[in-house]
Amino acid sequence: MSMQASSPPASTPLTLESPGARAWRRLKARPSALVALGVIVLLIAMAVFAPLIAPYDPIKQNYLLVRKAPSWLHWMGTDEVGRDLLARVIWGARASLSAGVISVGIALLIGVPLGLIAGYRGGWTDALISRFTDAMLACPFLILAIALAAFLGPSLGNAMIAIGITATPIFVRLTRGQTLAIKTEDYIEAARAVGNPVHRIALRHILPNVLPSLLVQATLTVATAIIAEASLSFLGLGQQPPLPSWGSMLNAAQRFLTNAPWMAVWPGLAIFVSVICFNLLGDGLRDALDPRSK
Amino acid sequence: MFTLISKRLIQLLPTVFFVSVIIFSLQHLLPGDPAMIMAGEDNDPAVIAQIRAQYHLDQPIPVQYLFWIKGVLSGNLGESMRLKVAVSELVTTKLPVTLQLAVMAMIIALVIGVGLGILSAVYKGRALDSLVNVLGLIGISTPNFWLGIMLIFLFSVELGWLPASGYVSPFEDFWQSMRTTIMPAFVLGNAIAGVLMRHTRGAMLQALSSDYVRTARAKGLLERVVVIKHAMRNALTPVITLGALEFGTLLSGAVLTEQIFTIPGFGKLIVDAVFNRDYAVVQGVVLVTASTYILLNLLADIGYILVNPRLRD
């Protein structure tokens, strides 16, 4: 085998592709992830522009329209107090998506610094943070979220905090593991040798290398958080009535399955579509950001 | 091997300690004075003072923790404020119901997840593989409470085949018990089946491309024998271990599933306790689920050491 380096053909310019551009090129090659990204953008737009696109007021009751089947006037039908289901599904996207994103934001905000500290400092600090993380992971996710939400009090904000705290250990563990692997690299040694302070090494040299894994995990955790928020709202521990949320809509629908099954179909479908899209995008990002994939 | 198991046991001690600290801390998240919350509408200062003394709330927090952990270690998880029954008694009554559901769910998850995972790996890149992958993704992404409601609509409301709610113990009437638990067990097993399917597929693909499978094929063995006797046996060990770890997911899922199907198990116990502000019960349920998870984790580790000769040395 020849060890000689072959030069590129004269006609092909030698260009260096940035990691972001490479990831985007790889992601574009995965149609399922692209479709999922498109649907997520649509869902976000639906949540942001809910006041403009919702055909009716989501909380206005009309006792002349109680439990009406889907029709041209009410595409998804109406609920037990005559509210338009399409309007409630559109407004419900706000609660679900914001809960998904904000709770993951809370988990990142607490988990990443703790993981960086544990991985970089090692010793007792690492042992303490890691054992605490193990303890939190030992408590089943939803049960801990329910317990926290119950103790904090029922509201959407507290549900987000509960889900965020419960999701934190995943990010601590991930960041710690990556930091452990990265801190032994030569460029970190070099950064240390030239006298960079610890926080600069952590933020400027280690964190950017942990970001791809965090992005994948955060996308997948948004899916888990959306289900968790819907579960807490279903139990009455999340969004409080009359404000709409997909989980609380399903709770109400359960009582009217015999004569208004459509009430259960749409909010459930909305949760399912959002969750499957975040899962598909997470899987796609994992492949796109994996240095081993071409 | 004994040293390895002892090491794992010692490593678990700090985890168990932190779990107890987390669960003990839950009651301190309550806004306001816990004694006044426990007293409920009864705001007689004498009653509040008695509660404060009974639960050692007048002591510093580390002392309160010591009293609490001493009680827990002697099997005293406190008393339900609403039912006036020991939490340990409630747990021992409700846990078998959830365990029955969990075992049935795990059987369903293993049959569907492992079966489809093997098929997907054997037919890699073909239409069946794609179909199984889509099914796995749907399984993982379907909220189990929605699936439960849809199954009730189909099998109870529309077809009238199965009861929509209720529970019958298998010791009373086995078939009726199966009729009341098959839908919730399927709902619970569904999400885990998706996870197991993905892991089985991965493990089988790795096993099918290994040297010993190539050797078995070169010896002229039937493909069925190669898959079942050689690849599957090795691929399934980590999958079964993962199955044990997924038990925590089952307990989480049971909370909503039992609520939908009105099954008087562990999940319904915690939800009822949350709404009745019965905090000792909430703490007790979290403690038992976390302990069960830690124990299963340990058993999975030991099982892994036992079946993997390289780890025994």
Description:
- The complex is a heterodimer of chains A (294) and B (313).
- Chain A is 70% helix and 0% strand.
- Chain A is mainly α and 294 residues long.
- In chain A, α4 (85-121) runs antiparallel to α9 (198-234) and α6 crosses α7 (156-182).
- Helix content of chain B is 78%, strand content 0%.
- In chain B, α5 (87-122) crosses α8 (174-208) and α5 (87-122) crosses α11.
- The interface between A and B is large, with 43 and 50 residues.
Write the layout of secondary structure elements.
The complex is a heterodimer of chains A (294) and B (313).
Chain A: H1 19-28, H2 31-48, H3 50-53, H4 85-121, H5 123-138, H6 141-152, H7 156-182, H8 186-193, H9 198-234, H10 246-254, H11 262-289
Chain B: H1 2-26, H2 34-39, H3 45-54, H4 61-73, H5 87-122, H6 127-141, H7 144-158, H8 174-208, H9 211-218, H10 223-245, H11 247-260, H12 266-275, H13 279-307, H14 309-312
Helix pairs in contact in B: 1-13, 5-6, 5-8, 5-10, 5-11, 5-13, 6-8, 7-8, 7-11, 8-10, 8-11, 9-10, 10-13, 11-12, 12-13
Question: Brief overview, please?
Answer:
The complex is a heterodimer of chains A (294) and B (313). Chain A is 70% helix and 0% strand. By secondary structure, chain A is an all-alpha fold.
> Roughly how many Å apart are the termini of chain A?
23 Å
Runs of chain B in which pLDDT lies below 50 for 5 or more consecutive residues are: none
Gyration radius from CA atoms of chain A, angstroms: 24 Å
Structural class by secondary-structure content of chain B = mainly alpha
Number of helices of chain A: 11
Report how far apart the termini of chain B are: 7 Å
Fraction of helical residues of chain A: over 70%
Could you give the count of β-strands of chain A? 0
The percentage of residues in β strands of chain A lies in: under 5%
User: Average pLDDT across residues of chain B?
Assistant: 86
The number of E-state strands of chain B comes to: 0
Write down the overall geometry of chain B. globular
What does the largest sheet of chain B look like? Answer: none
Radius of gyration of chain B: 24 Å
| Tally of alpha and pi helices of chain B | 14
The SSE order of chain B reads: HHHHHHHHHHHHHH
Largest interface, chains and sizes = A-B, 43 and 50 residues
**Structural class determined from secondary elements of chain A:** mainly alpha
Would you identify the regions of chain A where 5 or more consecutive residues have pLDDT less than 50? 1-8
Helix content of chain B: over 70%
